[in-house]
Design goal:
- 2 copies of one chain form a homodimer.
- Chain A is an alpha/beta fold.
- The first copy, chain A, has 3 domains: 3-303, Thiamin diphosphate (ThDP)-binding fold, Pyr/PP domains (Rossmann fold), CATH 3.40.50; 335-522, Rossmann fold (3-Layer(aba) Sandwich); 534-647, Rossmann fold.
- Helices cover 42% and strands 14% of the residues of chain A.
- In chain A, the strands form 5 sheets. Chain A has a 6-stranded parallel sheet, sandwiched between helices. A 5-stranded parallel sheet of chain A has the order 1-2-3-7-6, with helices on both faces. Chain A has a 5-stranded mixed sheet with strand order 16-18-17-19-20.
- In chain A, helix 19 links the parallel strand 13 (487-489) and strand 14.
- In chain A, helix 5 (120-139) runs parallel beside helix 7 and helix 21 crosses helix 25 (641-647).
- Chains A and B meet through helix 6, helix 7, helix 8, helix 15 and helix 17 of A and helix 6, helix 7, helix 8, helix 15 and helix 17 of B.
């Protein structure tokens, strides 16, 4: 380890970061200045990575949970050869640049996940670490190791105050994720002032209670940090939290250690003073210490060599283990073809079955042909019907495919995203629809990142019944549709549920929510070729000549619509809307389903807002539910076939 | 303490609970059977309460955070004289009964808050405990104590796994809420099985790290629990967690200690066996041990006497301290008249000022005339502009009115609700609009409970700019409107902001979200009497003769609309929509604003879904934002006056 080279690298991170924030007149200089030494150490000496091949599956993962410190990451990516040009750093926070305000996955090479909403990266990191243990267990042999890497994350005070990191940390300790190493940038500063105005807990004690190893040091002492990291890596069972005391805005003579430096440019004068203080040329902009580039250029050789050695190992492993290699290919294959191999469970017309039950059967059918499909519930598996028959994932059984996330919906969402970000696995999470509210941030992030995370939300309406309004979703389906790119699927019966799961699994760049019922629903007859239209957003379940009215119904309300048709003299066509978003994105298909001039009536056991733009009348629920047997609640609230018929 | 009487009370709780769950064929017998002894002790001996006056302001508060155990609470309320008839217990979980599936505030007397969504009650309890410290500091004198009560809560494994309780617990420890006492029903069981499948952390160690006193005992040992409670009450500084090991479904010979008993009726046969086991008559339904009623009838005398003594103290205090009594009346007065006393800050037409800044000034103006108005931000006060000049609330200064919630949005929401539930205070919380996602559950609960919580959400659109899509709300305004009863106000300039705050403060039975801008907005001219229409949902900012087009704009888009008018030859009326919900609830007013036949164009920097039912064209954003200066992002995404003009 060449300390002077790392110091040069760190100085360059500081130089680039403060200049970029100043040029943008916007951003966060505090973390980059405070954590530059750690960054130099990580990207220079610690990480197993090859910047020339940033997609290398066995690379160590690094996650900047404190995403506001984005310039720290961009500086390091530039300096270590990830192909992020200096010009892009100069365009920090400008429209279209590769250096947006917070790190964006899929946009800037080397960014493992989108962060900024605090605690999110921490929970993703737990998902990454789980993925590593699973893939290692699946593929490593006594002779060859193809998966063996660490997951590192850098978290700030804010990340550790958020409940989501508490949930994820508790689970990480339980699951004995020994290869997860989190750095806590303990700088004692938050936006409102010193952390001690709101955050005086004993963080070390808390993490020890979670089953973590906790180590302490200084973020400005490179040899000490190196030895702590070595200690962390040596611990095989417990995840490690390295509490690093740092000075926020390190080097700034007047602002270091204050909350002024957290999220505000230093100002031209203070930058000069800081540069002088740090031994950098005062008047040079975006200055890079030559030794930093010499050092990273030199490191590129062993980085590449290590990756090439892995490639050879992988080739040898593949040759020696053709069956494992075939499985590997399955794990890493676009599932579009795989899902066609699944055997559809038999759901007979006339049969009465809850779509959550059909969902469970469908999931299991797909899981058989997709060995990388894995997931679980936030302690509601028996209700969500999401258990898989391939063992339960635990510290003792990394091969298990069913997760017990505990009553931790928010953490589950972040972990599912992490599992999907890692590569190789297709992960889902499940809870009651009403508790989607607990996990809005990871739902949004999955959509923002174009991940293919799947979320199973059962008990999708007031038909939950007796549990009452706290457990009866009203606004949740619409609130999910509000998230751009998130696909919301609400199948109307068991057959449609299988099709919905298939559609969800085929998505490679958009997350899906599957909304399933608690109550039984009758399987209805369908026209030939319904599946094709189902995948476009909806199909005609029951037609009539020259329809005067078209009912657009989702989920359980399709059966309601079929009942309503019998109660009216009007000529009514019933359309099962699998996904309103798909329908609205495809006006031609919508026009095919809804003939010009026909009256349109929408039916969904939830708020009516989103249907008003599409329908003349809406049968829905714009108020909270009530406790009582489902059918009684529905009747009380007017969600009946009679009322639907009247609206036709 | 009469142990045999408490045992009779406990046996009656078990009897009523298992029969009610069985009669409903739905519900959770596990907790009521497991925690019956604790319930008897609490409601019989521990709580300072007078069931004949359940609104007594100085009563101890009890919160059933594990809300699924509702029959436990209903049994106790019935047995101790809260006026909940036995007939209502027999109608457990039936439509319209006073015994819904989960306890509902405002519906069943004696229920302090609506619970069911796990962890929510825990966070409310922290709010209750804070309220007590504040009111005690405000009103007690060296001679008279008018506020002096404890806050108790019962939480299960699920509550403690949720991140929201972690956030609230950390803050409770920091704030030294010594009069907060939480019972942890540690029964080792969750829905998916034993808690050790997902929850093996050292809960005691974690809470000690938060600064709590942790005590341990058995939920089936009444004298031991009594002595632990005494110990908890003696600790003045640290909140206390009493970890009580319990057998879920205690008494059931075949199901006790299993997850089968958590949320499923025992079944007729097992109920018989359980009754036999507990010494209850096997064939009697809803049996109450006579001693239980004798005991509670006898306790009613001292309960009432204690409350009457307090009334006398209060009267003496009021007489001796007329100024304090006037202040008390102010705290406990409907603010509708108070807010009229506030001096409106001067916001001149033409002035350019962000509505978050105007919001801060307005808040301060109202805070001056409403001494009970209190709140804070989740570590964003300098950005949210929500600091008050009346000191910061802390363990050292209970009189302070500005809270530092830390980076804990979800916990903040629950605490704000608890503060408002307690009585005497009017509380608000603040964060960025995009982070409303972190606190959906308490937002929903505030609406479900018809609380008057206020939530300030600044940085309300892509005009946030450089922070990029993780920080730019797109779907949040619409997702808030999706919550029934929650009022969403998005004022268009500084003057409207003052009016919006006033409108929010006048709500006594509905929560409000105030959506405010980061960026400056020009204060525009307004017609006379605009305020009256503003309170109805919207008013005409700029009119024209025989309007061909009406623009419905909110927030920053009102200025955009005023620009657009200049760019079109059409006769355009501009309406500032303060709240779309109010407008939609008032069709007459809407008809006044939008003349028949006029083309309607909506403008809001967010998703268009909710406007489509109201407008012919919508200028909005149905995609995530981008990082860049706000104006550049808006131009890039087409949110311009030119485009709005084209839509007219």
């Amino acid at each position: 380890m060449e300390i002077s080279s790392l110091k040069a690298l760190a100085a360059s991170v500081r130089s680039l970061s403060m200049d970029a924030v100043q040029a943008a007149n916007s951003g966060h200089p505090g973390l980059p200045l405070g954590c530059a030494d750690l960054g130099a150490l990580l990207y220079g000496e610690v990480l197993k990575h090859d910047p020339s091949q940033p997609q290398w599956i066995d690379r160590d993962r690094f996650i900047l949970s404190a995403g506001h410190g984005s310039m720290w990451l961009y500086s390091l990516l530039h300096l270590t050869g990830y192909g992020l040009p200096l010009d892009e750093l100069k365009k920090f926070r400008q429209l279209g640049s590769k250096t947006p305000g917070h790190p964006e996955y899929g946009w800037t090479v080397g960014v493992e996940t989108t962060t900024g909403p605090l605690g999110a990266g921490f929970s993703n990191a737990v998902g990454f670490a789980i993925a590593e243990t699973k893939l290692a267990a699946e593929f490593n042999t006594s002779e060859h190791t193809v998966i063996d890497h660490y997951t590192y994350a850098l978290a700030g005070d804010g990340c550790l105050m958020e409940g989501v990191s508490a949930e994820a940390a508790s689970l990480a300790g339980h699951l004995e994720l020994g290869k997860l190493i989190v750095f806590y940038d303990s700088n004692g500063i938050t936006i409102e002032g010193h952390t001690d105005i709101a955050f005086t807990e004993d963080v070390a004690g808390r993490f020890e209670a979670y089953g973590w190893q906790v180590l302490k040091g200084s973020a400005h002492d490179i040899p000490q940090m190196m030895s702590l990291i070595t200690e962390a890596k040596a611990e095989k069972k417990r995840p490690s939290l390295l509490i690093l005391t740092s000075t926020i805005g390190f080097g700034s003579p007047h602002k270091a250690g204050t909350h002024d430096v957290h999220g505000t440019p230093l100002g031209a004068e203070e930058i000069k003073a800081t540069k002088k203080n740090l031994g950098l040329p005062e008047d040079e902009q975006f200055y890079i210490v030559p030794e930093a580039l010499r050092y990273t250029a030199q490191k590129a050789v062993p980085w590449k060599a290590a990756r090439e050695t892995w490639e050879k190992t992988f080739a040898n492993w593949a040759k020696a283990n053709p069956e494992l290699k075939a499985k590997w290919d399955n794990f890493f294959t676009d599932p579009t073809t795989l899902v066609e191999n699944a055997e559809e469970p038999s759901f007979a017309v006339g049969e009465s079955i809850a779509t959550r039950v059909a969902g469970g059967k469908s999931l299991n059918a797909f899981a058989k042909v997709m060995p990388g499909l894995t997931g679980g519930s936030a302690d509601l598996a028996p209700s969500n019907n999401t258990a898989l028959p391939f063992g339960e994932y635990s510290a003792q059984n990394r091969l298990g495919r069913t997760f017990h996330f505990g009553v931790r919906e928010h953490g589950m969402g972040g972990i599912v995203n992490g599992l999907n970000l890692h590569g190789g696995l297709r992960a889902f999470g499940a809870t009651f629809l009403v508790f989607a509210d607990y996990m809005r941030p990871p739902l949004r992030l999955s959509a923002l990142m174009s991940l293919s995370s799947i979320f199973v939300f059962t008990h999708d309406s007031i038909f939950v019944g007796e549990d009452g309004p706290t457990h009866q979703p009203i606004e949740q389906a619409e609130a999910l549709r509000a998230i751009p790119r998130l696909l919301v699927l609400r199948p109307g019966d068991a057959q449609e549920t299988f099709q919905a799961w298939k559609l969800a699994l085929k998505q490679s760049h958009r997350p899906c929510s599957l909304l399933l019922t608690r109550q039984n629903l009758k399987v209805y007859e369908k026209p030939a070729n319904w599946k094709e239209d189902f995948e476009k957003g909806g199909y005609v379940v029951k037609d009539t000549e020259k329809p005067e009215t078209v009912i657009l119904a989702t989920g359980s309300e399709v059966n309601l619509a079929l009942e309503a048709v019998k109660l009216t003299n009007r000529r009514v066509r019933v359309v099962s809307v699998s996904s309103r978003e798909l329908l609205q994105d495809n006006p031609n298909h919508l026009a095919k389903l809804v003939p010009q001039g026909a009256k349109v009536v929408a039916a969904e056991a939830g708020i009516t807002t989103g249907w008003k733009g599409l329908a003349d009348n809406v049968l829905g629920l714009d108020r909270f539910g009530e406790s009582g047997p489902g059918a009684a609640v529905a009747a009380h609230l007017g969600l009946t076939a009679e009322n639907l018929a009247k609206l036709c």
